[in-house]
Amino acid sequence: MQKYPIMTSRPRCGRSLLARLRKEHRRPAGALPPLALTLLLVLGGCGQTAGMPPDSTASAPPKTEAAPSAGGHAAASAAPAPEGKRQIQARLTGFRALDEGTAYAWGLASGGHLRLYRTEDGGTTWAEAASPLAAESTADPGPEAFRVPDRKHLVYLSAGHSLPASLAISADGGRSWKSGTLPEEASGGEAVFTSKHHGYLVTQPDAAMGSSQKRIYETADGGFAWALVMDNASLIQRPEEKAGVLPLAGFANRGIAFRGDSDGWLPLESRTPGKVTLFRTKDKARTWHEVPLEVSSRDGQGQPQITGAPVFWDSEAGGGWMPYEFRHGATVSLGAYFTSDGGETWQLKAFGPETDVRAALRSTGLTFLSAREGWMWNGAHLLHTADGGASWEVLGGSGVWEDTLESFPELIRLEFVSPLDGWALVRSEKADASRLLKTRDGGKTWVVL
To answer: Running along the chain, 449 residues long, what does each successive block of 10 average in pLDDT?
Structure first.
């Protein structure tokens, strides 16, 4: 049976220790005996994490002046950071890692202003990038506000459902931005970029009662101009004309993926018990055809679902995966579809009951770095598999992960860029505070950045 360490309370620090020493030695305020002063200096660092402001997400050398954080609390004091480097002063809402050193994080600072940060040393220091020219709204930018085709190119898409939608493009890591244009109904759409120039956008201008009109646009200049390449509006009047277009049934809100510029996959959120829906294109989104997939048979009345677009690994030729869930009652059973032939065929692997989660859990953060190695959060513990989900082990040790997720139970993103280097962005139930965590040993121990 798995044993878990019993967490003990931390020693009291700061003002309570200072007051007790003054009282015991009966000295005027500000005066301490040499031994007491030495003890205070030694213990001065304890409880540092607990003293961070509720919406601070990154640690840095202490600044000389306290700065207000996103929730209106004063940030911890600290020494000046090097020029161009600073502590993250924002409630993070999104994150994207590219490799062991390079990552982007974004969110809202005091007053609701969008902030974008970049690190090139694995999160030790962060440089604040310029805000996109189109980001004038104070609305929550969301976890998918920025697409990152490569280390230097970023595309900002306004989140939410306010119209008109806005777009901005950077070719220098966020130092400067140029405004692009989008179709009027594009706000809240699903977008993917196959390169710094080429990308696709899926919109649903009319969605209700389990069905939606679906349009797909293509850009060949990085997002400055878009051309309509697929529209299923004709099915509204002539539902029998199904050849090559996406169906009205289902919603395109699970993401879209491409392998190269031509081959793409689009999962649709299904409302039909016992059925999952995945469509495939081989001609740059002009025509689409459904991909037959098997589903779990654990519960015939359950609802299976593909919960994310396919991800293909550079390290494995033709290898990739996409997440799968099977809802039955108050429980969600997890699994994944894997491919070894570039998405031509997919095989379902249903995970064991030890990975079942409560239906109320917002996100498991299920992620695979290869066909064998993956991680997930089951609401109580971080789990790791080295055999493609056939078995899972509980990762534990420092207690930082468990302690943080107890106060910040919503997992926004779990991402590994190597077998050792991983990141996690979590937030509070009220979404008014967040934490960014980092591991360098495959998830066994974590630190709060």
So the answer is: 35 38 40 40 36 37 32 31 61 93 91 88 92 67 87 82 74 90 75 91 83 92 91 83 86 92 93 88 96 78 89 92 90 94 95 90 94 94 95 86 93 96 95 94 94
pLDDT in tens, 392-409: 999 976 689 999 999 999
Residue environment code for 409-444, b if the CB has 16+ CB neighbours within 10 A, otherwise e = ebbbbbbbbeeebbbbbbbbeeeebbbbbbbeebbe
Per the CB < 8 A criterion, the answer to whether 383 and 373 are in contact is no
Alpha-carbon torsion, ordered 118, 121, 126, 131, to 10 deg? -10
The whole-model pTM stands at 0.77
β-strand partners of 116: 106, 129
Query: What's the chain's length in residues?
Result: 449
Token couple for 111: 């007053």
Name the residue with tokens 């991402």.
Answer: 415
Q: Are residues 303 and 327 in contact, defined by beta-carbon separation less than 8 angstroms? A: yes
Structural contact between residues 108 and 161, judged by C-beta atoms closer than 8 angstroms: no
